[in-house]
Amino acid sequence: MAQSTAIRGCVPTVILAVFLLIQPSISIYCEEDDCYDLLGVSQTANSSEIKKAYYKLSLKHHPDKNPDPESKKLFVKVANAYEILKDEATREQYDYAIAHPEEVFYNTARYYHAYYGHKTDTRAVLVGLLLVLSGFQYLNQWTRYNQALDMVKKTPAYKNKLKALELERTGGMTNKKKSNKQINKKVEEDLSKELELQIKGAERPSVWELIGIRFILLPYTLVKLLLWYGCWFWRYQVKQAPYSREDASYLTRRSLGVPSDSWRYIDESSKEDLIERRLWDKSNMESYREEMRKESKRRR
């Protein structure tokens, strides 16, 4: 009996708790009022009727038309209700909250996502991100390039080239006063511009290598790649034509696992020797590796 009485006593408490949870999921829209009632329209009203009702009430309760403080408060509520009901998405959310008040957390989450969620255009975010990354990439490349350039200019080989270039420009005549001194900075800058310094791993930055540019050119790159593979298959798989010098160079570089930037720094005679070995053939590659292993042991 006592247990039954205790249970009956808890029922109103549980109902009250559920009611307090359900109410916030609806009241977050128009507080304690009903958005439709505030505008004086039914839940089935169309957008034109909602708009017409709002303009009628806004003219009546606008602070410029009606100085009454209560009318001002009502105007704010009416404006808020119109903002909710004029948009199809938020109106659908509000109707769902009315029909399913028990889904408290879901309704609340949808409301805050709609009003406080990230509303920036995804395309704008992507473009901004690409611009920022490209900017950092370009600055980093220039920093690396300038640091590498400074290191090269301190080497004896570079200084010798600079002196040889100065002698060439002056016809072999040198200024005795400056013979034991460093070359004038302005002259050095002018001469260094004539020397094409190619520094491995720190090439001069190019806008075509930036992430943003590559992303913009991605469709073109993909089409070009597909055409290249198509031509390759037709020429060397179907027609069985001999490899051109350029394609043989590509196959050699790929077989050795050498990046294109590093391949440029290999002298032409070494390139020709590697290409003639036809290293894209598995047997030739194994023979070449064995030769390299023996050469490495001999040097030790």
From TrEMBL:
Q: What is its main location?
A: endoplasmic reticulum
Residues making up the signal peptide according to the UniProt record: 1-27
Q: How does it sit in the membrane?
A: Multi-pass membrane protein
Domain named J is located at 34-98
Where it sits in the cell: the answer is:
Endoplasmic reticulum membrane
User: Which Pfam families does the record associate with it?
Assistant: DnaJ
Keyword terms, alphabetized: Chaperone, Endoplasmic reticulum, Glycoprotein, Membrane, Signal, Transmembrane, Transmembrane helix
Annotated GO CC locations: endoplasmic reticulum membrane
**What biological function has been recorded for the protein in this entry?**
May play a role in protein folding in the endoplasmic reticulum.
Supply the name of the protein. Answer: J domain-containing protein
Q: Which organism is it from?
A: Penstemon smallii
